[in-house]
Amino acid sequence: MLNRSIGLFEAVTYGIGIILGAGIYVLIGPAVGLAGNSIWLSFIIGAIISAFTGLSYAELSTMFPKAAAEYIYVKRAFKNELLAFLTGWLIVFSGIVSMSAVALGFASYFKAIFAAPIILTALILIVLLSVLNFFGIENSSRVNILFTAIEIGGLLLVVFLGIGKIGTVNYFEAPNISGVFAAAALMFFAYLGFEDIVNIAEETTKPEKTLPRALILSIIITTIFYVLVALAVVNLANWQTLQTSDAPLSYAVSTVLGPNGFSIMSYIALFATANTVLITSIVGSRMIYGMAKDKALPTILSKIHNKTKTPWTAILAMMMFSIVFIFLGDIELVANITSLGVFITFALVNLSLIWLRYKKPDLKRPFKVPLNFGKFPIISFLGLMSCLIMVTQFDFFVIIFGALLLVAGVILYKLYK
Predict the structure, then answer these.
(1) What is the rounded distance in angstroms from the CA atom of residue 316 to the CA atom of residue 127?
(2) Do residues 391 and 344 lie in contact, with contact meaning Cβ atoms separated by under 8 Å?
(3) Rounded Cα–Cα distance for residues 158 and 233 (Å)
């Protein structure tokens, strides 16, 4: 049995820590190129979609407070092992590739400061943080809280420098309206993390109460940060210039503080990207553990270490596969692929809740999604439709890659069975 040691504060910090990670520090540049000064609107669109789906997660998490959450929700709703496996497959694969890409983002900042080789740095980071994950959720929580505080400090610096110039630009200026939605699809990567809170259900005290509160608070707090940062950053630098920068927030701060400002933000970006790698390792390994415990993956991946009470074989698997994918390197491409996979997963989660409202109306629900028409959850339906609409915002290559990923999942499932 996993050790229950996470309270509301730690759960919210986990959510904020993984949401306020690599996305805002790396991807705001290309997103600004799509949305212009209207980037703040893209963040609000992403927040609304997150909130719709987050409320569905909140209700489902109180019904099934288990690790491998999405896999469990889909399996319990549709009684279809293949569909449940594909859901878990999308989450695990997205986590592995994201962990690799964000580690490379860390290595790029590290190279700019210390001139260290990128691949080796990314590899060492993945190994070190996987070891930290192995030594227990409490130690990881402490590191997460520290790193999250540093991340927030960096974003507050951007807001502080840019907020005094509010009103100096046209905040509705954008290349075109479709660019605002395309940026929302890309920057949805920056919101990913709220759903991962439910995967630490078996290590959370009173998960029926803690998880819904942590989900909602994480989305609200990070949305406030994102909108303020989006407004501030276009005050500090022209959006056409920001889109060409590899370190957009560092560049924005340097327009006021000079080279010292660039260095400060680069150091903070190291903590932000490292924190994302750590939490992705934690939630990804719990998804693998939960699926293995349910016999959807080899049961050896469900082993728990006697002393640390952590799923050590799942952590090892997550580490090894992430090391393989550090050779990808393109964080924008990976972000789009990850977001596509998550939109599909979120659509299935919302559909699961709608289905369970009719098929299992008597299940205990300590938290219930508000705004219902009889049994029908209107917010979950809006979450389902918004996710399906956002899938259409990706380019052809990303959609083809997503389709091939699903085919690979079907083949893997058939081979394992």
Answers:
(1) 9
(2) yes
(3) 7
80, β-bridge pairs: none
Q: What pLDDT, in 10s, does the model give residues 326-356?
A: 876 666 677 777 788 888 999 999 999 999 9
Q: How far is CA 52 from CA 13, 151, 220, 375, in A?
A: 21, 26, 12, 17
Residues 6+ apart with CB under 8 A from 28: 39, 187, 190, 229, 230, 233, 242, 248, 249
Q: How confident is the model at residue 168 (pLDDT cuts 50, 70, 90)?
A: confident
| Measured distance CA(30)–CA(253) in Å, rounded | 17
Between the two ends of the chain, the Cα-to-Cα distance in Å is 26
DSSP line for 387-413: HHHHHTTS-HHHHHHHHHHHHHHHHHH
Contact predicate 215/194, CB 8 Å: yes
What distance in Å separates the CA atoms of residue 347 and residue 351, rounded to the nearest whole number? 6
* Whole-angstrom distance, CA of residue 377 vs CA of residue 237: 43
**How many whole angstroms separate alpha carbon 70 and alpha carbon 388?**
17
Residues in the chain: 417
Nearest by Cα to 269 from 126, 107, 142, 160: 107
Tokens 């050790």: give the residue: 3
DSSP for residue 364: -
DSSP assignment of 153-188 equals HHHHHHHHHHHTTTTSS-TT--S-HHHHHHHHHHHG
Number of H helices, E strands in the chain: 17, 2
Which of these, 99, 411, 23, lies nearest to 283 by C-alpha position? Answer: 99
Q: How confident is the model at residue 182 (pLDDT cuts 50, 70, 90)?
A: confident
Provide the phi-psi class of 304: left if phi over 0, else alpha when psi is between -120 and 50, else beta. Answer: beta
* Rounded Cα gap, residues 28 and 24, in angstroms: 6
Which residues face 377 on adjacent strands? 372
pLDDT value at 68 more than 70: no
Residues facing 373 on adjacent strands: 376
> Would you say residue 112 has pLDDT above 80?
no
